TrEMBL record:
Transmembrane segments: none annotated. Residues 61-88 form a coiled coil. Gene3D superfamilies: Met repressor-like. This is Arc family DNA-binding protein. InterPro entries: Arc_DNA-bd_dom (IPR005569), Arc_rbn_hlx_hlx (IPR013321), Ribbon_hlx_hlx (IPR010985). Keywords: Coiled coil, DNA-binding. It comes from the Bacteria.
Length: 107
């Protein structure tokens, strides 16, 4: 987004502005960026709903099953990592683990 992008004045309640401000701080972005991210996400959800609503029950069920399978695989990986962590010597558990730069700012 640049300064040349169109400007749009908007009135909204103070309570909502405070929520946006808090979310923007938590996500380490400006209030404008927070509002735009949330607006984009609402259109993404709307598009996904539109796609899903046109699918047959069988196809929808298969999508759900595939997602459950992916979630189970992820859960198995997390359990395996936890078991490795629990089996590790105590001296290695006390290290400070810092997030990688690529994981910062992700939603």
């Amino acid at each position: 987004m640049s300064r040349e992008d169109p400007h749009f004045r908007l009135r909204f309640p103070e309570e909502l502005r405070a929520k946006v401000e808090k979310a923007a701080e938590a996500n380490r972005r400006s209030m404008t960026a927070e509002i735009l991210a949330r607006l984009e996400r609402s259109f993404d959800k709307e598009q996904r709903f539109d796609i899903l609503s046109r699918m047959s029950k069988e196809a929808l069920l298969q999508v759900a099953i595939d997602q459950i399978d992916r979630n189970q695989e992820t859960l198995a990986e997390i359990r395996e990592a936890l078991e490795l962590f629990q089996a590790a010597p105590a001296s290695t558990k006390k290290r400070d683990i810092k997030p990688s730069p690529s994981s910062e700012g992700e939603e």
